[in-house]
# Entry
Amino acid sequence: MLKLLTAPVSIMVQYSLPMVPGPDKINWEARVNGRMVSFPIDSNAVLLDILRDKGGSLGTKRGCDMGTCGCCSVIIDGTPKLSCLVLAQEAKGCEITTVEGLSSGHYLHPIQQTFADCGGSQCGFCTPGFLVVSAALLEENPSPTTEEIKTAIEGNLCRCTGYQQIVDAIAKASEILVSGSSVEDSTSPKSDPHPGFSGE
Ligand code: FES
Ligand code: FES
# Structure
C-alpha cells in the first residue's frame, strides 16, 4: 500500500516543468501628453498598463481588456488605438495622447465641454475612450456628418447614456471648432458644474 502511494510522487518530481525565464527589460520612452517619459518596462508589457501604472494616466480605463469596449482608447501618432491591444514596445518613441492631454490648461477641449453640456456622460467609465476617439475624429475631420460620427464611435460601448447625447455632443463640438469660438475657462465660476454648492 505504501509503495502505491509513493510512486506517483516520484513521477511528479521527475516531470516537473523547468523554470520559464521572465520577459526581458527594455528601456521605453514616448511623448505622453506632450511630455517625454522614459522608464524600464517588461518587453511584453501592454501599453494600457504602462500608461496607467507608470505614465500617470488613470483616465485611460480598462473595460474589457480584450478590444471590444473602447474604454482604453488613446491617440498614437494621430490615430486612435485600443491601448489594451498594443504592446508598449509598438508605441515606443511615439506621440501618445490620453484623455488627460485633451484640455489645454484651464480650457477644456470642445468635446469635453459639449459632453458635459449635452449629457454625454453618466457613469463616465466609457467617457475617456469616447472623448479620445471623438477628438481624433474632429482633428482629422472637423465637420463630420452624423454617419461619420457614428462610424467613428462604433468601437466604443456605453452602457448607460444611450448614444444620442454622445452623437449630439460630437456634432456640437464640431460647430465650436468650425466657428472658431472658444470654450470657456473651466475655472470660471460660470462653468461650475454644481452652482450654488459651497462644498460645506
Ligand atoms: S479595455 Fe481595451 S477595448 Fe476594452
Ligand atoms: S457613461 Fe456609463 S458606460 Fe458610458
Notes: The radius of gyration is 23 Å. The domain at 110-184 is CATH 1.10.150.120 (DNA polymerase; domain 1). The chain has two domains: 25-98, 110-184. The chain is about 35% helix and 15% strand.
